[in-house]
Design brief:
The complex is a heterodimer of chains A (about 110) and B (about 500). Chain A has about 110 residues and is of the alpha+beta class. Chain A has 2 helices and 6 strands, in the order E-H-E-E-E-E-H-E. In chain A, the strands form 2 sheets. Chain A has a 4-stranded antiparallel beta sheet with strand order 2-5-1-6, with helices on one face. A two-stranded antiparallel ribbon of chain A has the order 3-4. The longest helix of chain A has 12 residues. In chain A, about 20% of the residues are buried. Chain B is mainly alpha-helical. In chain B, about 60% of the residues lie in helices and about 5% in strands. In chain B, the strands form 2 sheets. A 3-stranded mixed beta sheet of chain B has the order 1-3-2. Chain B has a two-stranded antiparallel sheet with strand order 4-5. In chain B, a hairpin with a 4-residue loop joins strand 4 and strand 5. In chain B, about 60% of the residues are buried. The chains are: A alpha+beta (about 110), B mainly alpha (about 500). The interface between A and B is medium-sized, with 8 and 19 residues.
């Protein structure tokens, strides 16, 4: 099992959710996050006071999938979140040791 | 408000007599014999101004229902300016953690000033005393009844004194509330209240008396009585300083107190290091709009009557604020690259501040010119002057109200000139427009500006020092970081 963490542009969130649903992923966790990458921030001016906003809003999508679905899920997210412009985000894939479904107590792939 | 031997050319020009006669007269009009200036006047309406021959020395005081109704409306409009207008305008500009502290400061200061006004404020500002302070004869509003009347700017035309007390109360309420913008986000609530008590007593009241107190137009019947009456007026009134609706009394006065405040209190933690950006420019826009609307009560109500001159004040107020909005936005667009909403809102307020002293003497084109100058100059003050001098005037109480007020006060001398479309200054003895000299008037205006700066600056300095020694001005660093809403008021503005 792997945990896929994708940082995407907020307005691409719906496309990503749709792409994952289409390939059979039954659940994701979404968080509004801020951060910076190569895109950098922007400057805001309030009556002459200049504030550099370093951290831009992004959406973080976390999805746990069985090993055989990882490549397909990563491709789906990449395709759905891509605009071709700087700031499209990143995808991190990490090993997942255990998953438990709280209601039934099922573990492993069963719980996904 | 009040002025020199002056103003109000339009009263005669626009046929005030006909307008004022339009009220339903309940009883058969009876012309009181001259001199029976009884307090029952309010209940026995007498047609005013019917006898257009202004040369008749004695006029019968009358209270007009139209004037009274307008003054009730105007007073409500000024209350709208303060709560919620000013509170939201300022509140939107602070960080979310200090939102309630600003709202609460404005709310409580206004309430406190209302009570102080009734106890001794009205009496000190608006009864005869020396040129600097009025007397105490109307403390606790003693002697005022529903039949009491207060003078306007037309001979023989009066309004109920209670309404005059209430209208002036709102001015005394907004002025101290303006000051808090300079040191928002870092001062103890208790310190602010004690400071305001002192400042109201020793800065607002004497300045209001100096600028606005006079015996009323009916005291000026001939040269001799005019001279006697003039000698009882406030110091700046005698100097000839014009301040129609409070450019000096309200805006310069508050702006200077704010400047002294932010210098003595010091900068906010994180000034020019962290983001201190406004938490809601949306609410600031809502507040600015309420101020804008309420300002028609402030300026037009200052005429104390509903007549042709009121209409001039209205159009001047409208045009100056619109012009200043455009000027600020244009300056920001050209110099900073983008026209911001905060800039637009600030521009409107700068224009309103600047036209305040001039609104009864400027012509409409003069008002536009004054608005453009004020919008551009105040933009310069808050963007360049502030960073050059390095003080932390959080919400630009000085940059907008101080600078805008000074521009308006000095600009009044220019735009009042009949040669530039202004009305000139009315001479109540000659019952006509006096000969106008711009340079003489400019000197008079300078008197008002400089005296106000020195007086308000001195009182503010002493008051801030006193409060600092007694209870301390600033909250602790920990409280400031946590936000004044939690540390001073035990609440949070937003639960989202």
């Amino acid at each position: 099992m792997k945990l896929i963490t994708a940082i995407v542009k907020p307005f691409k969130l719906d496309d990503v959710r749709e792409a994952l649903s289409d390939m059979g992923v039954s659940g994701v966790t979404v968080t509004e996050v801020k951060g910076f990458g190569r895109q950098k921030g922007h400057t805001e001016l309030y009556r002459g006071a200049e504030y550099v906003v370093d951290f831009l809003p992004k959406a973080k999508v976390e999805v746990a999938v069985a090993d055989q679905l990882v490549a397909q899920a990563v491709e789906a997210i990449t395709k759905a979140a891509n605009t071709g412009k700087i700031g499209d985000g990143k995808i991190f894939v990490t090993n997942l040791e255990q998953v438990v479904r709280i209601r039934t107590g099922e573990t492993g792939d069963e719980a996904l | 408000m009040k002025h020199f031997l002056n103003s109000f050319i339009l009263i005669t020009l626009l046929g005030f007599a006909g307008i004022s006669y339009a009220e339903p007269v309940v009883e058969t009009p009876t012309v009181n014999s001259a001199g029976s200036v009884a307090v029952e006047i309010a209940t026995t309406p007498v047609p005013t101004g019917v006898d257009a021959s202004a040369s008749v020395a004695v006029t019968t005081p009358t209270v007009n229902k139209g004037d009274t109704a307008w003054m009730i409306m105007a007073t409500v409009l000024v209350i709208l300016m303060v709560i919620p207008g000013l509170a939201l305008f300022y509140g939107g500009m602070v960080r979310a953690k200090n939102m309630l502290s600003v709202l609460m400061q404005v709310f409580v200061i206004f309430s406190m000033m209302a009570i102080l006004w009734a106890i001794y404020g009205y009496s000190i500002a608006f009864t005869e005393g020396n040129p600097f302070f009025g007397g105490l004869s109307k403390m606790f509003l003693i002697g005022i009844t529903p039949d009491s009347i207060a003078a306007t700017f037309s001979k023989g035309v009066y309004i109920p004194e209670y309404m005059y007390v209430a209208f002036q109360l709102t001015f005394a309420g907004i002025t101290p509330a303006l000051i808090i913008g300079a040191f928002a986000e870092r001062v103890k609530f208790s310190a602010i209240l004690v400071f305001m008590l002192i400042w109201f007593t020793f800065a607002y009241l004497p300045i209001a008396h100096m600028v606005w107190y006079w015996a009323g137009p009916d005291a000026y019947t001939d040269a001799k009585t005019g001279e006697t009456a003039a000698a009882t007026a406030g110091f700046l009134f005698q100097k000839g300083a014009l301040d129609f609706a409070g450019g000096t009394v309200v805006h310069i006065n508050a702006g200077i107190a704010g400047l002294i405040g932010c210098l003595l209190v010091g900068k906010r933690i994180g000034f020019q290091k962290e983001s201190l950006a406004p938490h809601s420019v949306t609410l600031t826009m809502v507040g600015a709009s309420l101020l804008w609307v309420g300002w028609f009560g402030f300026n037009v109500g200052s005429n104390l009557e509903a007549n042709g001159l009121s209409a001039l004040v209205f159009i001047n107020t409208l045009l100056a604020s619109a012009a200043a909005t455009l000027a600020w936005s244009a300056a920001e667009w050209i110099i900073r690259g983008k026209p911001s909403m905060l800039g637009g809102a600030s521009g409107a307020i700068a224009g309103l501040v600047a036209i305040t002293p001039a609104c009864g003497w400027a012509g409409p084109m003069g008002a536009i010119a004054l608005g453009i100058v004020a919008g551009a100059a105040c933009f310069g003050a808050v963007t360049s002057l502030k960073s050059m001098l390095g003080y932390d005037d959080s919400l630009d109480a000085f940059g907008v109200h101080g600078i805008g007020g000074i521009i308006g006060a000095l600009g009044t001398a220019v735009v009042a000139s009949p040669a530039l479309g202004g009305t000139g200054v009315w001479d109540y003895v000659a019952n006509g427009v006096a000969e106008y000299s711009m340079s003489t008037q400019f000197i008079s205006q300078l008197w008002g500006v400089l005296l106000c700066i020195v007086w308000s600056g001195t009182v503010s300095f002493i008051a801030f020092k006193f409060v600092d020694i007694m209870i301390g001005l600033r909250v602790s660093e920990e409280s400031e970081r946590e936000g004044l809403d939690i540390s001073e008021h035990g609440e949070t503005a937003y639960h989202i």
